[in-house]
Amino acid sequence: MYPLLRSLLFQLPAETAHHLSLKALANLPAALFPQLPEGRPVEAMGLRFPNAIGLAAGLDKDGIAIDGLGRLGFGFIEIGTVTPRPQPGNPKPRLFRLKKQQAIINRMGFNNQGLAALVERAARRRYPGILGINIGKNKQTPNEQALADYLTGLEQAWPVADYITVNISSPNTRGLRDLQATDSLHQLLHGLKQRQQQLADATGRYVPVALKVAPDLEEEAVQAMAAVINEVMLDAVIPTNTTIRRPGLENEPLARETGGLSGRPLKPLADRTLATFRKHLQPELCLIGCGGISSGRDIADKAAAGARLFQLYTGFVYQGPALVRECIRAAASLPA
Questions:
Q1: Among 40, 97, 241, 264, which residue is least crowded by beta carbons within 10 Å?
Q2: Contact indicator for 169, 138 with CB cutoff of 8 Å
Q3: Residue of 170, 184, 294, 295 with catalytic role
Q4: For 253, which DSSP code?
Q5: By the 8 A CB rule, do 315 and 289 touch?
Q6: pLDDT 10s digits, 247-276
Q7: How far is residue 150's CA from residue 137's CA, in Å, rounded to a whole number?
Q8: DSSP H stretches of helix in 54-114
Q9: Beta pairing partners, 49
């Protein structure tokens, strides 16, 4: 059924189809959702995940379809990226399908309704799986004041999140990736870690913090970032976000569009970055593999590179619920 639905949705502008799909998922009755395969629970970050397959941030930025997405079988769902204040994002058009390559280019720019609206929806969810909230800084906030925005995100998301992801790797907010530089990263993560511990002491509840990183990093940069992450004792890293490169797309006209590339062409870069972080991070730190997953075989590749959990995005757009079920089965068949 999904291929027919996709063919209809793909007649619409990409962003229009995206919003219609989310609204439909938010309102469809539970009886219409497919029967799910039995997944294998995973212990990570001090949390028990019903299965290892998650939805990456970016698809449901404002948390409007948490329950509907949860009915598709995801063991965890990450909503956002959300900023302290609402913002419209970059000018349209800003979302492009590369159908032949099963890829997407986006330059959305953290368009979202703000923390207050997202937190309110997250508090009302019935989804029983793990919920992550991905936080960012507002476009108008200079990097020198970025920590304040991330602290606001941490504090407001804390009561409703099972874990919180710090996004400093989107290529669509000018200067954001500069926060991955060693000095900036050190200041940001130390400030967040200190506040995380204060909130845990005050609430009696520990909420893990993950960091989402770019795939466009050489090993020297990964090693420097890993040293900071190890020092701070962060809970998880998510390799990777979208890439500004265009691997294998030299003859694709849409590849000239600016923004981050996701989908199948991203996988080699994402897998390389994942393996490099695994090489330099403490072995107990959780890695969440993200980027280019479009089959169960890709789950095995991510696991071999060091991931314990896995996130879908673009592959899910192209293949729908069948990919979720295939990946749940693939993750369950991995060596324990």
A1: 40
A2: no
A3: 170
A4: G
A5: no
A6: 999 999 999 999 999 999 999 999 999 999
A7: 6
A8: 66-70
A9: 42
Residue listed under structure tokens 């923390």: 115
Name which of 241, 90, 60, 268 is nearest 168 in CA terms.
Answer: 241
Report CA Rg, the chain: 18
C-alpha span between 102 and 315 (Å, rounded): 7
Instruction: Report CA-CA distances (Å) from 234 to 113, 124, 168, 212.
Output: 28, 28, 15, 12
Domains of the chain (ranges, CATH numbers):
2-332 (3.20.20.70)
Is there a cis peptide before residue 258, judged by omega within 30 degrees of 0?
A: no
Q: Mark residue 109 as left, alpha or beta (left: phi above 0; alpha: psi -120 to 50; beta: remaining).
A: left
Three-state secondary-structure class, residue 229? helix
Amino acid at 4: L
Residues 66-123: tens digit of each pLDDT: 999 999 999 999 999 999 999 999 999 999 999 999 999 999 999 999 999 999 999 9
Structure-token pair, residue 146: 């970025």
Where are the alpha helices (H) located in the chain, listed in sequence order? 2-9, 14-27, 66-70, 115-123, 146-157, 182-203, 219-232, 267-280, 296-305, 314-319, 321-332
CB 328 within 8 A of CB 39: yes
Q: Is the CB of residue 39 less than 8 Å from the CB of residue 332?
A: yes
Is position 295 annotated as part of the catalytic site? no
Q: Helices 14-27 and 2-9 sit at what angle, rounded to 10 degrees?
A: 140
Structure tokens at 177: 């990736």
93 cis-preceded (ω within 30 degrees of 0): yes
Interatomic CA distance for residues 186 and 61, integer angstroms: 27
Q: How far apart are the first and last CA of the chain?
A: 34
Residue type, 267: K
**Largest pairwise CA distance in the chain:** 56
Average pLDDT on 147-176 reads: 98
